[in-house]
Amino acid sequence: MSLIKEIDYGTPIRISEAMVTLTIDGQSVTVPQGTSVMAAAMSLGTKIPKLCATDSLEPFGSCRLCLVEIEGRRGTPASCTTPAEQGMIVHTQNDRLATLRKGVMELYISDHPLDCLTCSANGDCELQDMAGAVGLREVRYGYDGHNHLHDVKDTSNPYFTYDPSKCIVCNRCVRACEEVQGTFALTITGRGFESRVKPGPTDFFGSECVSCGACVQACPTATLMENSVIAMGQAEHSKITTCAYCGVGCSFKAEMQGDRLVRMVPYKDGKANEGHSCVKGRFAWGYATHSDRKTKPMIRKSITDPWREVSWEEAIGYAASEFKRIQAKYGYESVGAITSSRCTNEEVFVVQKLVRAGFGNNNVDTCARVCHSPTGYGLSTAFGTSAGTQDFKSVAKADVILVIGANPTDGHPVFASRMKKRLREGAKLIVADPRRIDLVKSAHIKADYHLPLRPGTNVALINALSHVIVTEGLLDEHYVRERCDLQDFEIWARFIADPKNSPEESEQFTGVPSADVRAAARLYATGGNGAIYYGLGVTEHSQGSTMVMGMANLAMLTGNIGRDGVGVNPLRGQNNVQGSCDMGSFPHELSGYRHISDDATRNIFESLWGVKLDDEPGLRIPNMLDEAVGGRFKGIYVQGEDIAQSDPNVQHVTAGLAAMECVVIQDLFLNETAKYGHVFLPGASFLEKDGTFTNAERRINRVRQVMAPLSGKHEWQITCELAQALGYDMSYSHPSEIMDEIARLTPTFSGVSYQRLDELGSIQWPCNEKAPQGTPLMHIDRFVRGKGKFMITDYVPTEERAGPRFPLLLTTGRILSQYNVGAQTRRTENSRWHQEDVLEIHPFDAESRGIKSGDLVSVASRAGDISLHAEITDRVQPGVVYTTFHHAVTGANVITTDNSDWATNCPEYKVTAVEVRRTNHYSQWQERNNEEDKIMRRIATDHVEAAE
Ligand code: SF4
Ligand code: SF4
Ligand code: SF4
Ligand code: FES
């Protein structure tokens, strides 16, 4: 294995149908028009010396190192800023150029520390390389002149250090922050010799910087350097793998020394991220080797007993015997499993197979139940496929971007950077969100319309938008006639044209001024390519599925499906939420979204698996918990999910778990759910896995193992051994064999294999005979279901309404630095940015309750109450409060209710009626949970002592 080094063309790859042919150092080369002379030379393998240029950034032309001679032109133009032209004859090397380049390098080196041997960039420094490339042997100016060698380092960021003594003011960091990340946190202050890079008036930590690391990656010297490299030195080999956080699915080079990770470098050829990343993927991987990791299997008879470390054989044998005992006593339907959207497709597939073939029922569900299940239902009803319609790069062709119930800069940061780039180029933006999310106004971006609707009124708003388009005749009649079911459309058009759906009538529910709704509708319908991006602010509602269909209606109505720049795009929360759904994790569906009751489909599985499958859908997660409380559901296998923190109405969840006789936890850590566990099977971090994740674009990415599983076993092996112990023979020698089985059983995956993935880099399903390279854009000529289906989307107000007892509406969301239940990010330095969940409250609501910023406040709903600190802000509107749910101690889901989407049971996390009051104590639940935490820690510590 070696270190993967990507070619740097110096300037971005240009795409053009027009080609130009030129001669460089006597060699002919043909490149797309717009390509720089530097990139054209590089495509011949000719490296022109450079410092300020790199191919992730537009050419800047400041260092003057890349000078060339072009026949017929005066002077020595910079090759990075000079476009290649037809017939050009270029010379990149001669004595004159060599002298000029040496002179440039002499100036740089005269103000640069000569500590190469002890420098953290030693072996990976472009300045060092260029000194070598130009043959610098002496510096005529000496080293004692006016210099910056004693400038003070900025070590405020936990992940990287800024050492200005090494800065050559090439501006790459500033441009990376602007062009790639879109944050504009850095500037060059001063002029000439005084020029310095500054993160605003403060240090990096206190600045606007979001720690994406793009500047660190762009820096050609050791000025901006990862602390891990400073501590460990350069890596010696690397592998391409996929981030294990969000559904963007960024590809990284995991750069290693032996089996120790040195750094994660975003992979330029990664189709989802094209060389960019956010703070989580690039830096927040320390949890993988955190001392809290449990790496030995453990069991206990009762949840009040201490855990006992046992062999794998004993743990798996005990779990299997308990499941068998329970099924014998309470019936075959008394056990089930939950698959994890954090795990690989292969790991998920074997868990649902274990349930169907080993338990003999369909009681398998996935954590997607509580986030994007309405996406599956809504999009498959309207279009025929339970997935987003576009690839990410499609946003570069969007003219009007409608963001609904999503906060991309926090939740999907790398996609947000792409989107912001398009917005800076002039695309229009409509944001529908109760909160003023960052996209509404940030550096060089301002939403054309922010529609700050009241939580729970999405459907009223989407209907009002469609109403305007239909009644003002702004629809794309040709598209509707050609592509959609006309009968359904006509019924729907009559429904939507009803004045009850007008913006004026809807305003009483949404609170959004009707004039803004009308204007936004006109913009979306007439502004060119209209693209909808949405998140959990759409799905986690009692009408989540209705809203997804409402967005599909809007897109079809305006002809915005089936080409670049348009579409209906769910921004998936977790790394493999798309994949876990694709793999047949829902109780009513086999892989590829085929209903369990379909005899032909079941027969295919039965003949390959050698078992008879139950044709009745099994229990969903909430039903499993209800049945547990009712005494009929007694055993569960939970793969990598912390339902005692992440699911709504926590007290109901924990009552269900406590009522079970065998709770098997497969996880990295003893999480909240493990408090109710009887068997703990240690899982593996993404660095220890081999497999695939599927991102929000339906892109199947490879996850490659860079270190051995700390527990000694792969997660798919654990599941297979459990199945065998249950009496069902399930075994594979490598996860590629699991993918081969998935491909055999699933028409949309039939062309997928590890070999194809290695050849193509990644594949967007469907991938089969019809689409051997995969499918970036869906529904191009026809919808997967044939004709697009308009669905009636009556607005039905949620039962969860503000009233005298609970006059405010709580909505929840995420923050950039933390991730979901925080199990990973809380075990990294990311906690420095977000140490606790706080309650955002509008100044009016705070003042009427005598609340000041920083006060401890009690938030009570009909489900429970918690206390947390208040932050007064007008990001939220009056009547609405907001919090995150990253810290288990907060217990945000103690107060969310068990209301859920009518079609899929996805919980209504986004609307909870609450009252907020000042308090001086934490809630009873929090106090109790705190005590339980102490007990759990003591049990773990007692146990470790006993083991020693
Ligand atoms: S880490 Fe990212 S946000 Fe921060 S200064 Fe660098 S490029 Fe800008
Ligand atoms: S910090 Fe690095 S990238 Fe930024 S100007 Fe200095 S040398 Fe260039
Ligand atoms: S955007 Fe998502 S996938 Fe990409 S690095 Fe960040 S957390 Fe990972
Ligand atoms: S690389 Fe062309 S001017 Fe710096």
Account of the 3D structure:
This protein is of the alpha/beta class and 948 residues long. Helices cover 31% and strands 16% of the residues. The strands form 10 sheets. A 7-stranded mixed sheet has the order 13-12-27-26-25-14-15, with helices on one face. Strands 31-35-32-34-33-36 form a 6-stranded mixed beta barrel. β18 (441-442) and β19 (445-446) form a beta hairpin. α16 (503-510) crosses α17 (514-526). It is globular, with a radius of gyration of 29 Å. The relative contact order is 0.11. Residues 944-948 have low confidence and may be disordered. FE2/S2 (inorganic) cluster binds at residues 50-53, 61-66, 78, 80.
Which properties best describe this structure?
6-stranded mixed barrel, 7-stranded mixed beta sheet, binds FE2/S2 (inorganic) cluster, 948 residues, globular, disordered C terminus, binds iron/sulfur cluster, alpha/beta
